[in-house]
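Reading a protein record of the kind used here takes only a little practice. These numbers are not coordinates but entries in a learned vocabulary of local backbone shapes. Here is one such record, which you should read through line by line.
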Amino acid sequence: MPTIDTTLYLKNQSTSRSPGNQLGKDEFMKILMTQLQNQDPLNPMDDREFVSQMTTFSSLEQLMNMRSSIDNLVESQLISPVIKYSHLVGTNVSYPTFDEETGEKLDVETSNVIAVSQKDGWAILALENGEEVYADSILQINDTTAEKD
């Protein structure tokens, strides 16, 4: 008489799985593999039905990849440094200057922002005095339009 494996009891199963309302590609593959393992050997799944399910799976995977790519694109557009710091164009900013050889802090200069660009994910402010500084190094921002009114 065969013995029952006690590790298969429900009480011994891991309960770390949390239920969700989304069926991902991993869950789809598990369902498909379970279906293939438990099919009737005398009446196996029809070839056309199997191809149809694999096509559905492939389409699902491509849609998920496309959604992920679109989410990444939208996220990168939302936090673009150029967009984030574009409001500084036309303002006076104060920034520290450093000695190029020693790296020693020299003074604080002020200049008008004329453009914002991006390099390696960092916002760079082009100033009226010809300098380019990282937006993160700005010490003070003065709105020049408020002074003209």
User: Anything to note?
Assistant: Residues 66 and 72 are 10 Å apart (CA to CA). The first helix runs from residue 25 to 37. The chain has a mean pLDDT of 79. The first strand starts at residue 91 and ends at 98.
